[in-house]
Structure prediction request, 156 residues.
Amino acid sequence: MKNAIRHAAMIFAKAGISDREIIRLLLEVRRVHPEDFIEEVEICRAKLRTVGSASPRNASRPDKEWTLGERVETLLKKEARLSTANAHIALTNALVDAVLVKPDELPALSKKSFSSWVDRVAASVPHKELLRLATMIRNRHIGGDPIDWLGSETLK
Prediction:
């Protein structure tokens, strides 16, 4: 297998992309002119540099010290600029639509914090799925590419 293919496969494996998503992506890439794809990659790189440099998370403490709830809160409330109520609704709907939980299995959103609610949800939902869904919601709200989370600093 060519090194470039192996490198892409490693990125997909590390990102936890499903087989169905990989097939959809490969079919989509076939229809895109290589120069257009390179331009899109450059746009994503610029976005990642902007988001990474503007994020207070980068300046205050290392990623490994952030809880999953704090990462999801950053994606939805800070980057996508959703209110707590809208972030809760969007993530709840995404979890139910993805058949990861039933609506009655989710804990109630307390007045404590959105991030602590996400941490309670994480007890029954895989962390990578919560991050993937939160990133998809974020991208819908900021107009980002649905797969730009592959290189996102929030996943490293």
Remarks:
- Residues 79 and 138 are 7 Å apart (CA to CA).
- The radius of gyration is 16 Å.
- The first helix runs from residue 3 to 15.
